[in-house]
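Hi support team,

I've been running sequence recovery on a batch of backbones for a student project. Most finish fine, but this one hangs at about 90% for roughly twenty minutes before it completes. I'm not sure whether the input is malformed or the queue is just slow. I've pasted the structure tokens below so you can try to reproduce it. Let me know if you need the job ID as well.

Thanks,
M.K.
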């Protein structure tokens, strides 16, 4: 039996506990999209939100583009030209003291499917 996720490349995004910024998240995902443009493949992205002061990190969708919201006040809209295909619950809420795993895979038409992956990693992993 083949497990394609075992051969997938991995990327990690750590939200800065001292300065949680939605603009930082937008830049990180822009780099992920650029990487997938250069070399289409399955990519596993682990997002760590290890900050006691954070109450909520959310990704919602507006006009087919993700909007990153941190604690309800910092909002940054990413212009990925409707390439983010949300196959995850919307809004997507990152766990405050843990890991949220996203499986990102290119599809036809220069779009990227974004799904939630299973994680068993504790916050300190």
């Amino acid at each position: 039996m083949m497990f394609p996720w075992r051969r997938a490349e991995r990327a990690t995004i750590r939200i800065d506990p001292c300065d949680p910024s939605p603009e930082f998240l937008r830049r990180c995902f822009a780099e992920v999209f650029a990487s997938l443009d250069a070399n289409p493949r399955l990519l596993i992205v682990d997002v760590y939100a290890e900050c006691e002061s954070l109450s909520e990190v959310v990704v919602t969708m507006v006009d087919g583009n993700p909007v990153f919201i941190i604690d309800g006040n910092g909002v940054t809209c990413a212009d990925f030209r409707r390439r983010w295909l949300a196959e995850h619950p919307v809004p997507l809420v990152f766990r405050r003291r843990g890991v949220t795993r996203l499986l990102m895979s290119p599809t036809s038409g220069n779009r990227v499917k974004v799904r939630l992956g299973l994680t068993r990693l504790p916050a300190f992993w």
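--
Follow-up from support: It reproduced on our side and the slowdown came from queue contention, not your input. Helices lie at 22-38. No action needed from you.
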